[in-house]
Amino acid sequence: GGFHVVCQEKLWAEVARIMGVKLGHPLKEHYQKLILEYEEWKRGDGQSTEAPATEASGRDDAPVASAQDGNALELLATAMSQEIPESPLPKSPKGEAETTPNLSPSKTQPEKRASAPPVDDTDDEAVGVLGMLANDENAEAHVHAYDNVDEDDVYLCEGCGRGDNENLLLLCDLCDGAYHTFCLNPKLSTVPDGDWFCPECTRDQDTEFGFRDGKRFTLVSFKRMADRFRRDWLGKGSNVSPAEVEAVYWSLVDRPDLQIDVHYGSELHTSKVGSGFPIGGNDKYSKSGWNPNNMATMPGSVLRFVDTPMSGVIVPWIYVGMSFSTFCWHAEDHNLYSMNYIHEGDTKLWYGISGHDADAFEHAMQSAFPELFEEQPDLLYQLVTMHSPLALMEKGIPVVRAEQNKGDFIITFPRAYHAGFNQGYNIAESCNFALADWIPWGWMCKERYKHFSKPPLFSHEQLLIQLLKNDSAYTTAIWLRDEVEGMRDEEMQARRALIADGVQVQPMTVLDELRNAANKAQVAVKEERGEGASPAKEVKQEDDKGVKVKGVKQE
Questions:
Q1: Residue 303 CA to chain centroid, in angstroms?
Q2: Strands, E, within 139-297: which ranges?
Q3: What is the pLDDT of residues 9-62, one digit of tens each?
Q4: Which of 57-71, 186-200, 281-295, 353-367 has the lowest mean pLDDT?
Q5: Hey, which residues does 157 pair with through a beta bridge?
Q6: What residues have CB less than 8 Å from 229, skipping those under 6 apart?
Q7: Of 420, 424, 419, 418, which Cα lies nearest the Cα of 406?
Q8: What distance, in Å, lies between the first and last C-alpha atoms of the chain?
Q9: FRET label pair with 202: which of 4, 41, 212, 534, CA 20 to 30 Å apart?
Q10: CA geometry: angle at 528 spanning 527 and 529, to 5°?
Q11: Residue 331 CB: number of other CB atoms within 10 A?
């Protein structure tokens, strides 16, 4: 009946069973990604037997699939046997990205619609389900390979925890969560047509893009889900390089017709879930300045004078990621420094832009997405916009690249825009801090917040006053001088503007008289209502003739 009929009738589990595998959903995903476009092209031109010469993996020598290649499974095997190209951002010997590589324009790069996880012919455990099908000459060989399939490879019902009755097991088209029709509340008598969304995902269907609340996970269940997702997309083995994952990621981002939902345990409060670093002990790690629980308040960090224990800034946040979970382009709140540390898990890939190139970066983003910025001028504060570093480099903006692994620290500098994604399950912890040289960057951010009517996390002016009172360091005074003078000039300008608008300056004695009159009126109203009035106190003040008079102050 074709792809659409199988989708409408929810027959992918049955197709997978006929083919001898137990995973119907990955089969659907790979079929849609690798074969469907070719079939639609072939159906539109019945006389032609030669497929369009589009590159599948970005290589000039990549084999081109045609109608003569045989059935869909053979076409799938052809696509999956191709290598994924190296990362287009070359690294220097020290591991940093070169900022001026010779790159061809991104608009000429192939869309990689047939790109797929690499296949290792020598190790069946290192490939996904479709990889095994692609390499098995015997049509039934894969049946025996999956006789002892791991429990994690099977979709289990979120309600009853079982994976039987697969013909009644619905898979959510957003989160891959599985539910039996008879485990739902209310129960479903038949398998629904078209897309189906689980109860956890239906509440936020109006969100066009960005983040929405996801399911609740334990760390164990999240890792199981993340590992299953990675196997579906990248195969079972751990021999997939960061560059290969990077190529797959950007091939997905560059496809507006493809929607993939991933989970990200983002901004989890360490006050609730705990920190990966020791707190309050006498050992060197508890007292270390690299401990994110200490970094913001260590000597030298001006944030030690912020009274509020702001979560994510002074109090660290925990991040639990999975393959393709993304942190989009942004600079830190108040243009602060940031620190990120990976406790365990796979690589986190970073792209960074110097704070001195921030204006050029913002202009490039506005040029690339004019409609979005017209609707939301503060779009870059929303952390929902991802743009290829290649496109930015074409506009002359230097971009650096870093691979962060377990045990690595990443530091970002003031107003340094950064973005990236996780290549698999990992746990990271981060916080902010500020050195004295941050002060002018913070003032700049304060002015931008005023322009966009964005509430600040803390008062920049109050922090400057606290620094004046409590930090006697010579270097701090140097950075403070211009900012304090600017704060004074801004205050005087605001006062002059008020006077120009007609606001009159009155002596304090007039204000006291008005306050006493209001208090007397309040007492009179309470007496008229029969309410008891609290004892009044006399307030001595001078009238305009210098004679002391008595007033009444109601408490």
A1: 25
A2: 169-171, 178-180, 265-269
A3: 767 777 877 776 645 666 776 777 678 877 777 776 544 333 333 333 333 333
A4: 57-71
A5: 178
A6: 176, 262, 322, 323
A7: 424
A8: 83
A9: 4
A10: 90
A11: 25
Q: Show Cβ contacts of residue 81 under 8 Å, excluding neighbours closer than 6 positions.
A: 119, 134, 135
CB 311 within 8 A of CB 430: no
Structure letter (DSSP) for residue 84: P
211-264 pLDDT tens trace: 667 778 889 999 999 999 998 888 766 678 889 899 999 998 888 777 788 899
CA pair distance 533, 522, nearest whole angstrom: 9
Question: CB under 8 Å, gap of 24 or more: what pairs does 254-257 form?
Answer: 254/111, 254/112, 254/388, 255/111, 255/113
Q: What is the pLDDT of residues 131-148, one digit of tens each?
A: 322 333 433 333 333 333
Please report, as a single letter, which amino acid is at residue 149.
V
CA distances from 88 to 230, 288, 402, 537 (A): 22, 38, 13, 78
* Buried residues in 525-545 as b, exposed as e (16+ CB within 10 A): eeeeeeeeeeeeeeeeeeeee
Distance set, CA 554 to CA 48, 298, 523, 528, 549 (Å) = 95, 47, 7, 16, 17
- Beta-carbon contacts of residue 55 (< 8 Å; ≥ 6 apart): 62, 64, 110
Q: What is the identity of the amino acid at 530?
A: G
Helices (H), 296-438: 358-368, 370-375, 389-394
- Spatial CA neighbour of 158 closest among 148, 146, 172: 172
- State how far the Cα of 280 lies from the Cα of 287, in Å rounded to an integer: 8
